[in-house]
Amino acid sequence: METSINRAEIFDALYLFVRYLLAVVEWLILSRMGNQKMKKQIAHSTVEKRVYNVYDIMQLLEISRNTAYAFVKEVYGNKKPFPVLKVKSAYRIPREPFDDWLRGNSTSLEQ
């Protein structure tokens, strides 16, 4: 009888130990993922965007991706009504002139 009790106790202890290890591993994985997400959130919240990309323009103007690209390319060629920068194949739009244009304020464009 004593042997079966010892085996049961050993089994229970082993079971609890494995559950504990799994919980620790899960905690480590989640804490690492949380730290990465936290770093990204901190980086995005502390750094103010100075330029928009085409995706931002698409969202701000509520237009399709193709329309946003066509619009940004046209503005880049005309250099009006706001400046557009081209870095290799990527377009970047300075935030302040674009926001002024969007609000209907063209004073910054006349300078």
Quick overview:
By secondary structure, the protein is mostly helical.
What does this structure look like?
This protein has helices spanning about 1-45, 55-60, 65-80, 95-105; strands at about 50, 85, 90-95. The mean pLDDT is about 80. The chain is mainly α and about 110 residues long. A 3-stranded antiparallel sheet has the order 1-3-2. About 70% of the residues lie in helices and about 10% in strands. β2 and β3 form a beta hairpin. It folds into 2 domains: about 1-45; about 50-105, Orthogonal Bundle (Arc Repressor Mutant, subunit A), CATH 1.10.10. The chain has 4 helices and 3 strands. It is rod-shaped and about 85 Å long.
**CATH architect. name of the largest domain:** Orthogonal Bundle
- Overall mean pLDDT score? 81
Shape: rod-shaped
Q: What count of helical segments does DSSP give?
A: 4
The biggest beta sheet is recorded as:
3 strands, antiparallel
Low-confidence region ranges: none
Name the strands of the widest sheet in spatial order.
1-3-2
Tally of domains: 2
Termini separation comes to: 95 Å
CATH level-1 class of the largest domain:
Mainly Alpha
What is Rg?
28 Å
Helix and strand string, N-terminal first?
HEHHEEH
Helix-strand category: mainly alpha
